[in-house]
């Protein structure tokens, strides 16, 4: 099928939208592109949510990519909105902020100052409080616009990112303070003292409303930035890696939360996949002898073919993980993944270190929440020896001395870390010894390959004694490695 | 071609008439599925109304629901069609017993007969294609079949037809509305995804969950439904092994109605939380979370 050149403005918009999705890493096939073009013939763009879902339904087939999609969508369709009668964040019909001021406390509003300009900061804060108290969405939206105009200090052409404006606006709104005031009011309004459960529910409700407000503020800032800089530039600024590609070492707080949410379904998927693999990969080559033996009972007819069942012994895994600072997150995810599939191994033992080393296997025994166990490891393991700066050499010494004899021909050893040794002695000979005894030794490094052996990184010094050194910067690479481990 | 739904809003309306509460996204995709004649792949956590969606769409449109429940090991003979060997054997036997005067031509005839309609066992996919009346085809939990088995579905999903070597191609006389559901235990093939519209159904937001409770739980009051939905929302914010699904919300609400509860206090919640949460560690976590009276906040604020 031939793709018609984008003739209508809407199709042109869609074309730009799709190429931005691709630039953001989302795989959009030709069929999907055509489906989207057809879809928007059926769903009016004014029906914003349905329109958004229609595009998503044709273009995004992986829920993990939803956020990336949404970001691009908001940029592409925020400004064009007005052009296509797509108005959100608009003042509610016939509403004027100053009406609220009147309605609220009966104070005389200053004349001639229609809109919010005439309001004092206190009045705006007061209105914000009322809007949140009542959960009035329309008013919240109006206030968000006001607040951005008043506090963000946005100027055309200024090369600052949206987060800066967001920060300025939110700081002025003092949402933490507002939350406490809301809670205070709720307590006052309640006939009796709130029970802890009621407290919690009230708080969650207010937090949800505040979150809504924050989103409105973000949307308003985005709208203004798009107006100022244009769609393409904004889309580019906001481009973020997909969750599976987020770098462990440089994940923001929010990305880290997304990663933690992603790890559970990932482990489940991996576990199911591996269990299946095992079940299906079971049939080996025809076992000729056994077939003949059984054929005797059929008068020599080989009626029942017999297969050799390969039963490779399950390996025993020893994970030795650096849990200092920037690599801690990486260690956490790896431990999580390894334990999630621990039934694939005959045994898993884990050790964590910074400059001292501690065995943490027992943390994982008999727990049904791996996440919780990993959390305990971080909180409770005894890993600091002198100063809490990574010392691989010393950690390996301790490992060798205490556990070296447990390394055997069935053991696969996985070392996790960036091999930044703070210029301590490497003691690489220990790894050499380990390699002699072990089945395999792998090193997983969360740093990009280009940084290896720069500064105090001595990954090659260790690497020569390993069966493989792998760059594992993100969930995608980690999943791949762990799957192959089995 | 006539459509069941005039616009997105009438999808919502139609579904809510049969007690299915759809949000804008769900309604939009259902509407689109009918217009574009494309299957919908519905994915999301268990118990969020994926299966029910297909059932409710069938009910709302007065279509016949045909369901293929997937499981590991599902094959062509259970999904598409199968030849009725027993009947074929009987037929051959009958032929043998009767005299057969002309040898060769006769066998040709028999063979043709054996692979005719009469001996065909129709399975859900073929049935959906051959039905004369409007059909909603539900292919439930498609992630449970092996990835190779997915190939069986592709022809139907893209061309609404089934090829049977002995009979030729059977094309649909009406285009069924197809829903595939997945709990996402594995990645589905690109080929399958490409043919479908994709719909992720998550836990409903507060208002929708409350409406679902009101629609589905007989005897529940407005205020109880509201409390249930609120508590469930808060519980879902805790990091749990398994967050409560809509089914569990409904079970919980039903229990509370049975117990005659009108206001859920901490004790009631603690006594019945095992209906909402399945893992001991989750229950403990939730109880701890909600019982802890945060000293700083529990004191009533002084009147200002
Ligand atoms: N939006 C909804 N409206 C009405 N009932 C719902 C809705 N979502 C879920 N339910 C109810 O929740 C229960 C679980 O739904 P089900 O479709 O079996 O979940 P899934 O297939 O996603 O695992 C059913 O009793 C269903 O009726
Ligand atoms: Mg289901």
What would you note in describing this structure?
The complex is a heterodimer of chains A (486) and B (304). Chain A has helices at residues 9-23, 30-42, 48-59, 66-83, 97-105, 121-134, 137-151, 162-173, 175-189, 196-229, 231-238, 253-280, 288-295, 328-340, 370-380, 392-403, 428-437, 459-463, 475-485; strands at residues 316-322, 347-353, 357-359, 411-416, 440-445, 468-471. By secondary structure, chain A is α/β, with parallel strands linked by helices. Chain A has 3 domains: 8-77; 84-240, no CATH class; 253-281 and 314-485, Rossmann fold, CATH 3.40.50.410. In chain A, helix 14 links the parallel strand 1 and strand 2 (347-353). The model of chain A is unreliable at 81-95 and 101-116 (pLDDT under 50). With 304 residues, chain B is α/β, with parallel strands linked by helices. Chain B folds into 3 domains: 8-74 and 131-200, P-loop containing nucleotide triphosphate hydrolases (Rossmann fold); 82-118; 206-293. Chain B contains 15 helices and 9 strands. In chain B, the strands form 3 sheets. A 5-stranded parallel sheet of chain B has the order 2-5-8-1-9, sandwiched between helices. In chain B, strands 3-4 form a two-stranded antiparallel ribbon. In chain B, a hairpin with a 3-residue loop joins strand 6 and strand 7. The radius of gyration of chain B is 26 Å and the shape is elongated. The N and C termini of chain B lie far apart (67 Å). The relative contact order of chain B is 0.13. Chains A and B meet through helix 2, helix 3, helix 9, helix 10 and helix 12 of A and helix 2, strand 1, strand 9, helix 11 and helix 14 of B. The site of magnesium ion has 4 residues of chain B, from helix 3.
Describe this structure in a few short sentences.
By secondary structure, chain A is α/β, with parallel strands linked by helices. Chain A has helices spanning 9-23, 30-42, 48-59, 66-83, 97-105, 121-134, 137-151, 162-173, 175-189, 196-229, 231-238, 253-280, 288-295, 328-340, 370-380, 392-403, 428-437, 459-463, 475-485, and strands at residues 316-322, 347-353, 357-359, 411-416, 440-445, 468-471.
